[in-house]
Amino acid sequence: MIQDRLTRLRDRMSEKGIDFYMIPTSDFHGSEYVDDYFKVREYFSGFTGSNGTLVVGHNMAGLWTDGRYFIQAENELEGSGIELFRMMEEGVPDIPDFLGENMKSGQTLGFDGRTVSCKEGKELEQKLKSMDIRIFYEEDMAGDLWKERPLLPNHQVIVLPEEISGQSMEEKLLAVREKMKASGALYFTLSKLDDLMWLMNIRGNDVACNPVALSYSFLTPEELYLFIQPQEVTKEFTEYALKNHIIIKDYKNIAEFLNGYDYKGKVLLDKGNINYALYKILSDKAECVFESNPTEALKAVKNKTELSRMEEVYLKDSAAVIKFICWLKKNVGKEKITELTAAEHLDGLRREIQGFLDLSFPTISAYKENAAMMHYEALPESAKEIKAEGMLLVDSGGQYMGGTTDVTRTIALGEINPEIKKHFTKVAVGMLQLTQARFLYGCTGRNLDILARQPLWDIGIDYKCGTGHGIGYILNVHEGPQSIRWRFAKGAAEAIIEEGMVISNEPGVYIEGSHGIRTENVIVAKKGEKNADGQFMFFDTLTFVPIDKEAIDTTCMQPIDVERLNRYHEQVYLRTEGLLTAQEREWLKEATSPLRI
Amino acid sequence: MIQDRLTRLRDRMSEKGIDFYMIPTSDFHGSEYVDDYFKVREYFSGFTGSNGTLVVGHNMAGLWTDGRYFIQAENELEGSGIELFRMMEEGVPDIPDFLGENMKSGQTLGFDGRTVSCKEGKELEQKLKSMDIRIFYEEDMAGDLWKERPLLPNHQVIVLPEEISGQSMEEKLLAVREKMKASGALYFTLSKLDDLMWLMNIRGNDVACNPVALSYSFLTPEELYLFIQPQEVTKEFTEYALKNHIIIKDYKNIAEFLNGYDYKGKVLLDKGNINYALYKILSDKAECVFESNPTEALKAVKNKTELSRMEEVYLKDSAAVIKFICWLKKNVGKEKITELTAAEHLDGLRREIQGFLDLSFPTISAYKENAAMMHYEALPESAKEIKAEGMLLVDSGGQYMGGTTDVTRTIALGEINPEIKKHFTKVAVGMLQLTQARFLYGCTGRNLDILARQPLWDIGIDYKCGTGHGIGYILNVHEGPQSIRWRFAKGAAEAIIEEGMVISNEPGVYIEGSHGIRTENVIVAKKGEKNADGQFMFFDTLTFVPIDKEAIDTTCMQPIDVERLNRYHEQVYLRTEGLLTAQEREWLKEATSPLRI
């Protein structure tokens, strides 16, 4: 079946004079998750994992995916003739390198320019330019061959009232237009969905786990054009649009519109967050100013309303996780629980919370050595059964009308050996040490990262990821520009930590084949004392879930570490006990009782 | 007298058609200290401080200097008609701004282009270009008017034997030429004196506290030209030059040489470390590659010989400081000691050390509130008398045939109040915390700075400077490229901390009008464990001088902080006791005895 599909694709490629065709896994906005409509790569390869790019030549087909999916991809690709390229393994070329080696002068590379970011497209251009290779990006050639392709998702948008958004669209527009002006741009093309939702105070439901609507916007000094599917526009939204002078256009006409617009000045666009097809139009028709979307930094600083709603939502979400841990500890070994059914139990607890919209990402439930894989995904056929031993790592979150949550706890289900206890304790110490940071305004995540990492570095262990990422408000669970990490990609912008930024704090230990530990709270930056030395900053905590004392070894802690843990646990109990049953409360009382120094 | 001199200068300016003339305090190499020959600004202003720039117009004369010298400058400028510009005070323009406001289109600004760095010169160019102002930089117009000007310093150079340098000039040249090649440069003009001394394995004595010879060098793929005053060339050096194919030229002919050279490729030069006059020649005659001097990073990584000699020298230097502290504690209140005589006593102890060449910078000896000024300079007329109360901050170092040292201790001379004790303790905790850092290779000083600063930030205090700077080997006490600080100037390069880099570690507290504390050790980066997570790094300590327990409050410390201090003190005693008298040893025994947790 896959071979038939590939044959049809190759025939089409021949017609169009295309030598290699690339199918990434992306919507037109670079979203973290994609709807079924965008699963063209799955249709042509049979591989169902969430990350992968298919490259089809006339004599080859290859699928690039990451370590999470090597085994699954091997199984799913069997018999298809598609070669598996294991990303990041030694000797395995990345796609630009592969194309550079396998394409010949005068040949043509094809892809749907809407599913490739401007940045990636330009990198390919750069690589292939000198080889005289043409790029054909104007058509969704593969997608057109997909019989019974699902429709584009087109759920109705909702308008956030100001008691939820905390700031009117008018005020937000004013701030964005000031930034446009400062950049010397007359226009601004925004296609990053969460930024767009933030700006317009609307939410959608077109991307799993991200409450966003497929849309584009184009700002001029006076006008705001919104490109959205007509089915998504409700009566409420039409009225809102009228009141806010939003000019509604059809989603499918964005390219035509930008192509035909009469530009009288520069256009601001964000290289990493606009697709290659739109970039080509804009750079052809107008002078471009390449900058981060001005919405990004504005969105990252949460306003008072957002923060107070998040505080409330995080307590409810924390209570759900507490209920889950209590349930798991009581039932493990007594009934059959797998990684997947445990996740389902937790997801169910979240669904009961008032204002629940969706999960903020698929729950990661990883038992024992599976937890050593940072992005482990339990699959129905291989999910591990959870027994009364070892540890379960659960990383999860929800979307609520009032905030987006993200929390990780690693739960001891039996006796934990001293080595693992030590690792667990160091992770907790680092997490609390970063939480307690007092720092001068002007610090970026690079300055602070070592506070979380140092207890692990001290024992010769590192975690191969950042310590923290920004978190949206009823939006994406990963957002920028802030980030806590010790290294940044070359040329990457580092954001100063501003009051009102919400950030995850998630050090961990990942020992391949043995165990994985991650303890993640979400914290929010606040202004502290201001004196002659400057403006001091500190973090408040939003997450209140006990850190498993059964995996703590106080001999690996300084008195201040124990104090911090005890103080945190005291708050966990005080803040969440009212949301629990008597039985859960009793359990929590014990789980948060102070450790002795 | 000053007015006569200024009149002569103005006459000369009129002859040459110059409207404003600027006289900075610099030699031709941007050295940190300057010889008497270069004190043209002092000659024309009467101001004797170490930092200041004179600007003379036909109707005004102004002197810019920093906070250390405001009072002194006021006194010394009295009656001269020269206006004092207090740098960094609110409402006081800097020189480019002042010139921008006071010069008119078509006018000419003059200065000796050799005493202004390329970077500063280009900034002035940038500022004045649009105003159609000419810059005349080709003559030392003011210096020529100085009657009885001292001669250029011209001390004989010495050649370091390989048992001192640890690496032959040939090997160093090879490494530098590789870097030139990598930068696409055929030539390299090096005028930073310490880099030049390092490259050639020679030392001079033309700059106070810096054992360097006034010189330039010009490298081609095959040749090395050295421009140096003939008086500095010894028979030993002539032989060494012959053996190493060094082409010796006269120092005064560098401009002529670079002007007449037949360039067949690009020239590498370091914008921040070449003077404006040479830059103008090079950019006129050849294509320039602007990069840090390739010698800088090579010089910063000390080789085994250098490190083992430094270890030895640091012990002797530490012993001198221990002797000093012991002497001070025993004699304070019994005989008259001032900030200056205390410094002289310490300097005398250093002079007795075998291999002593010079101080590495003028000893800072600051009593009580004077210590709150980071760069305080005790002057004969105003040096404070030291009594048996308060604290004395002493920051000092030596140049030895075997290393350059730098150490600061703040010494309690009586009962210390709890607030100051707390500050002192937090400084010590931060210094030891940074010393104990284990970190992955790839970290820069920005990642680590918070380890020293956090105990102070925790109590709402900051010090307005970096935590650490690189230290030369029988060279400048301040060198790059490494640096430990939490912020870098925009666009400043951050150096990864490499094995063999020697760095100061000097957190402090500076409370204006009250007290100042600085505790400074010198540490050296080493490779530690290498495992699947990467190459871990750590620091070894070179400085072994007790940290005053009389100013320590263990209630502000965690047990690990006390342990670290005790372990350090144990090493101080073990390593230095053999270098002390019986009486000093007895004192040190007590000064390093363990504190109880």
UniProtKB/TrEMBL annotation, chains A, B:
| Peptidase M24 domain segment(s) | 309-525
| One Gene Ontology cellular component | cytoplasm
Recorded GO MF terms: metal ion binding; metalloaminopeptidase activity
Domain Creatinase N-terminal positions: 5-129
Q: Which SUPFAM superfamilies match?
A: Creatinase/aminopeptidase, Creatinase/prolidase N-terminal domain
Alphabetized Gene3D superfamilies for the sequence: Creatinase/methionine aminopeptidase superfamily, Creatinase/prolidase N-terminal domain
Organism domain of life: Bacteria
- Which keywords annotate this record? Aminopeptidase, Hydrolase, Metal-binding, Protease
Give residue ranges for domain Peptidase M24 C-terminal: 535-595
What family is this? Belongs to the peptidase M24B family.
What name has this protein been given in UniProt? Xaa-Pro aminopeptidase
Q: What is the scientific name of the source organism?
A: Kineothrix alysoides
Organism phylogeny: Bacteria, Bacillati, Bacillota, Clostridia, Lachnospirales
